[in-house]
Amino acid sequence: MRPLLAVSNAIDLLNEKIGYVCNLLVLLSCLVSAANAMIRYAFSYSSNGWLEMQWYMFAILVMFGASYTFKRNEHVRVEIFYLLLSERGQLLLDLIGTLFFLIPACLLLAYLSWPFFMQAYDVGEMSGNAGGLIRWPIKFVIPAGFVLLALQGVSEVIKRIAALQGYVTIDAKYERPTQ
Hints:
Layout: H1 2-43, H2 48-71, H3 87-123, H4 136-164, E1 169-170, E2 177-178
Antiparallel strand pairs: 1-2
Helix pairs in contact: 1-2, 1-4, 2-4, 3-4
């Protein structure tokens, strides 16, 4: 079980680092938005590139932030029945939901979004707006985000199995296994 927990820790560390980048993107997107608005009103100048940059930062924030949010157990969950379950029941429900729903759905969506990215990459897709940005890099964020979320799902499955076998306990706040 220790090698699997090491893999889980590596995935957690990756998504934690990505989460820090996402946190910075929130601030950066606010600054770009404010600067763009001030320049537009003060100098009557605007750029589609700055607007698209905000959209790109938001897309990265959402797609990559999902795995970070899942890792920290801050995702949306319908807890009507979940709270009535014992700790073991909650672990089993998390395990089943992640293993049979989250991971397959994420992998399917990554697979289906890959051609969307590849088509944009092959033609070197650019924005149709004057001064706009290239589009294919942001389209890569879609499959990459789903793969990161699936990887975090694998980490959560490992932690739940380890907890069910008594190797670790799960810290309810941050989903960190403690030994």
